[in-house]
Automatic annotation (TrEMBL):
<dbReference type="InterPro" id="IPR014729">
    <property type="entry name" value="Rossmann-like_a/b/a_fold"/>
</dbReference>
<keyword id="KW-0819">tRNA processing</keyword>
<protein>
    <recommendedName>
        <fullName>tRNA(Ile)-lysidine synthase</fullName>
        <ecNumber>6.3.4.19</ecNumber>
    </recommendedName>
</protein>
<dbReference type="InterPro" id="IPR012094">
    <property type="entry name" value="tRNA_Ile_lys_synt"/>
</dbReference>
<comment type="similarity">
    <text>Belongs to the tRNA(Ile)-lysidine synthase family.</text>
</comment>
<dbReference type="Pfam" id="PF01171">
    <property type="entry name" value="ATP_bind_3"/>
</dbReference>
<dbReference type="GO" id="GO:0005524">
    <property type="term" value="F:ATP binding"/>
</dbReference>
<dbReference type="GO" id="GO:0032267">
    <property type="term" value="F:tRNA(Ile)-lysidine synthase activity"/>
</dbReference>
<dbReference type="GO" id="GO:0005737">
    <property type="term" value="C:cytoplasm"/>
</dbReference>
<dbReference type="InterPro" id="IPR012795">
    <property type="entry name" value="tRNA_Ile_lys_synt_N"/>
</dbReference>
<keyword id="KW-0963">Cytoplasm</keyword>
<comment type="function">
    <text>Ligates lysine onto the cytidine present at position 34 of the AUA codon-specific tRNA(Ile) that contains the anticodon CAU, in an ATP-dependent manner. Cytidine is converted to lysidine, thus changing the amino acid specificity of the tRNA from methionine to isoleucine.</text>
</comment>
<feature type="binding site">
    <location>
        <begin position="37"/>
        <end position="42"/>
    </location>
    <ligand>
        <name>ATP</name>
    </ligand>
</feature>
<keyword id="KW-0067">ATP-binding</keyword>
<feature type="domain" description="tRNA(Ile)-lysidine/2-thiocytidine synthase N-terminal">
    <location>
        <begin position="33"/>
        <end position="204"/>
    </location>
</feature>
<dbReference type="InterPro" id="IPR011063">
    <property type="entry name" value="TilS/TtcA_N"/>
</dbReference>
<keyword id="KW-0547">Nucleotide-binding</keyword>
Length: 318
């Protein structure tokens, strides 16, 4: 059984209780699978988890094979886990070099962690995203012109299917307080976090040098927006249930009098149901045409305007 005594010796009881409450608000009983890179944030999460949930924690580090130091960093996490009496695994993935290497690495990392956690029988996969990460994400998405969904930031939880949930229990914690927890513990310094070519690095620098912007308040705003996003999504589901008829590949949707945003969400769901998902600009173009009484195609579908919109497969071209 993992021993929590060493972790408890580093952390005040109030912080352990706070972390326990944050995790329990997002998932129930079961094994907790932690993604631990070796940085201060994830190492703090490791120590908090071992102290708060002794015997229920496993950890893994992903080696993307992109930096020579990665193997040493994974070993640092393995050593820390060994000292805590906690199981650890190193997951090796392959990422092809190129312009989208960060996106590829993220996709490979989550796929590996998902498979590992599922294979271990975990009920939750935990990552160490915190309030400062959330604030950076919101700023980045503001700069890109994101809508409500994007400005809701990093979600606190997401169903991964098969009784596994991705949770982020540290979204209410600040980077500095996590670093303080592991001030006496060896951690990894990832140089990519300071690379000015990355949007997140620039957002982090802006927050660090702008004293009137409070990352914690931005994170709170993201939380409020996420609640609004969930409410609008619920309304869209109710509209589909009560005002749409799906019959043999043809969808009739009575959307008369509804706000544009609700129509957008309903159409997004209906189009995705027909295996033709559309991005934001495509949906904007679709809505503009429908509002002007014009039919429009999206993917392999055609949408006809009117109080009762008709969505059906577009005729095949010969």
């Amino acid at each position: 059984m993992p021993s929590a005594s060493k972790a408890r010796g580093l952390i005040p009881d109030t912080l352990i209780a706070r972390f326990r409450a944050d995790v329990e608000a997002l998932c129930g009983e079961g094994l907790l699978a932690l993604a631990v890179s070796g940085g201060p944030d994830s190492m703090a999460m490791l120590h908090l988890a071992v102290a708060a949930f002794p015997g229920r924690v496993i950890a893994a580090t992903v080696d993307h094979g992109l930096r020579a130091e990665a193997r040493v960093e994974a070993q640092l996490v393995a050593t820390a886990c060994e000292s805590l009496g906690n199981p650890h695994a190193t997951l090796n993935v392959t990422v092809a070099p190129g312009a989208s290497v960060q996106a590829q690495a993220r996709e490979a990392r989550y796929a590996a962690l998902n498979n590992w956690a599922r294979g271990q029988g975990a009920s939750a996969l935990l990552t160490a995203h915190h309030a400062d990460d959330q604030a950076e994400t919101v700023l980045m998405r503001l700069a890109r012109g994101s809508g409500l969904g994007g400005l809701s930031g990093i979600r606190a939880s997401r169903d991964l299917g098969g009784e596994l949930t991705l949770i982020r229990p540290l979204l209410g914690w600040r980077r500095a307080e996590l670093a303080a927890i592991v001030g006496a513990v060896p951690t990894v310094d990832d140089p990519s976090n300071r690379d000015p070519r990355h949007d997140r690095t620039r957002a982090r620098a802006l927050l660090a040098h702008t004293d009137w912007i409070d990352p914690a308040r931005i994170a709170a705003t993201a939380r409020h927006l996420a609640e609004s996003e969930a409410a609008l999504d619920w309304i869209a589901d109710e509209v589909i249930r009560s005002r749409c008829i799906i019959d043999d590949g043809r969808i009739a949707a009575d959307l008369a009098g509804l706000p544009r945003e609700i129509i957008r969400r309903v159409l997004t769901k209906l189009i995705a149901h027909a295996d033709s998902p559309a991005d934001g600009p495509t949906l904007d173009h679709l809505l503009d045409r429908l509002e002007n009484g014009l039919s429009s195609s999206v993917g392999g579908l055609i949408v006809h305007p009117g109080d009762r919109m008709i969505i059906q497969k577009a005729p095949e071209r010969h």
